[in-house]
């Protein structure tokens, strides 16, 4: 049996799966009732934490697919130690997220929020803006999203460097990649710090009071990875104190972002509701990836995007580094 965990919307294009298997669509709340009978689990509701809450043994689960690149919401101890294969949706969001990051960078240097605010108040307020060319971006995360972001920012005239698990020189997408252990050393060089890494024990809370203090006062933080990469209280304190110039956040420790969060009203902050990768057609692409993998699974062929359950991401890439989460997460 194939079980699809979904909220209000079902994934489109499921006919190829429904033609070959019994498919049950359930909410997160209903998953425990059918978990023991499930052979294939498709987590369409990618924010759901129903898998750890529903895990029981014995069960028949052989394969779990997440409609996102980040899989931290499903990796409980039972799943890690089981024989079930985990796959993700790596590749769907790379270019859309990179385009969104470029848009945020441009919004900062050209003060587009200020322009829109002035327009809303019918205020004619001339001012100078910044130049994009020659600025420096540090991309944390060397997976597909980080690489797509690096390529686009370099094409726009920025100097780009990366932070990954291991260092390497002359990378085609990110220039020089510095090892993660040197993050604090390279933060002072960046005008834009872009978090596009997966949420792992190594990266959780990596943007904190110490790393924020290492950033230059005019720097901006952009997080399109996971909310847990950033210690929210430390970021709020840094913004209030003027230790950094601003932040653009698409992901948060708690989603939706609570109305009482100070992030909503802090100057220099751009908030978006976890939508950086959701360009038109994203739902169809996610469902098509699962359907293709289902036909591979049914035919005994290798699955796409198999996740290392110990690491929490798809191994690979030019430096063997982590792949960025989306829906990223990166």
Summarize the structure.
The protein is an alpha/beta fold. It has helices at 15-18, 31-34, 50-54, 77-81, 94-109, 112-120, 144-155, 183-186, 209-214, 232-241, 282-298; strands at residues 2-5, 23-26, 40-43, 63-66, 85-87, 136-140, 159-164, 168-171, 175-179, 192-195, 220-223, 246-249, 269-271.
| Estimated share of beta-strand residues | 15-25%
Which CATH architecture of the largest domain? Answer: 3-Layer(aba) Sandwich
Instruction: Give the helix level as a range of percent.
Output: 25-40%
The termini sit apart by: 31 Å
Order of helices and strands: EHEHEHEHEHHEHEEEHEHEHEEH
> Which spans have pLDDT < 50 for at least 5 consecutive residues?
317-330
CATH level 1 class label of the largest domain: Alpha Beta
- Spatial ordering of strands, largest sheet: 8-9-7-6-10-11-12-13
Overview of the molecule:
By secondary structure, this protein is of the alpha/beta class. α5 (94-109) packs across α7. Mean pLDDT is 94; it is low at 317-330. The chain has two domains: 2-92 and 280-298, Rossmann fold, CATH 3.40.50; 94-271, NAD(P)-binding Rossmann-like Domain (Rossmann fold), CATH 3.40.50. The chain has helices at 15-18, 31-34, 50-54, 77-81, 94-109, 112-120, 144-155, 183-186, 209-214, 232-241, 282-298; strands spanning 2-5, 23-26, 40-43, 63-66, 85-87, 136-140, 159-164, 168-171, 175-179, 192-195, 220-223, 246-249, 269-271. An eight-stranded mixed beta sheet has the order 8-9-7-6-10-11-12-13, covered by helices on one side.
């Amino acid at each position: 049996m194939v079980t699809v965990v979904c909220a209000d919307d079902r994934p489109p294009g499921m006919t190829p799966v429904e033609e070959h298997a019994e498919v049950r669509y359930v909410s997160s709340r209903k998953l425990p009732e059918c978990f023991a009978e499930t052979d294939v689990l498709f987590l369409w509701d990618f924010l759901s934490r129903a898998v750890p809450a529903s895990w029981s043994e014995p069960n028949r689960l052989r394969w779990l697919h997440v409609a996102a690149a980040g899989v931290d919401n499903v990796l409980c101890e039972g799943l890690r130690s089981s024989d079930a294969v985990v796959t993700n949706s790596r590749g769907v969001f790379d270019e859309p997220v990179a385009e969104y990051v470029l848009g945020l960078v441009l919004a900062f240097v050209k003060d587009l929020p200020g322009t829109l605010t002035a327009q809303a108040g019918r205020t004619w307020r001339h001012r100078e803006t910044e130049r994009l060319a020659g600025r420096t971006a540090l991309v944390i995360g060397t997976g597909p999203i980080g690489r797509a972001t690096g390529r686009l920012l370099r094409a726009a005239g920025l100097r780009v460097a990366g932070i990954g698990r291991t260092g390497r020189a002359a990378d085609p997408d990110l220039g020089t990649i510095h090892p993660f252990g040197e993050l604090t050393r390279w933060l002072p060089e960046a005008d834009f710090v872009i978090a596009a890494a997966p949420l792992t024990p190594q990266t959780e809370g990596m943007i904190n009071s110490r790393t924020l203090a290492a950033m230059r006062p005019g720097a901006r933080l952009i997080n399109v990875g996971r909310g847990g990469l950033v210690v929210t209280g430390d970021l709020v304190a840094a913004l209030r104190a003027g230790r950094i110039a601003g932040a653009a956040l698409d992901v948060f420790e708690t989603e939706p972002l609570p109305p009482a969060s100070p992030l909503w009203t802090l100057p220099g902050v751009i908030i978006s509701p976890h939508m950086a990768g959701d360009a038109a057609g994203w739902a169809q692409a996610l469902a098509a990836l699962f359907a293709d993998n289902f036909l591979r699974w049914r035919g005994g062929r290798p699955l796409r995007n198999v996740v290392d359950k110990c690491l929490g991401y798809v191994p690979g890439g030019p430096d063997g580094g982590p792949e960025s989460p989306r829906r990223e997460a990166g």
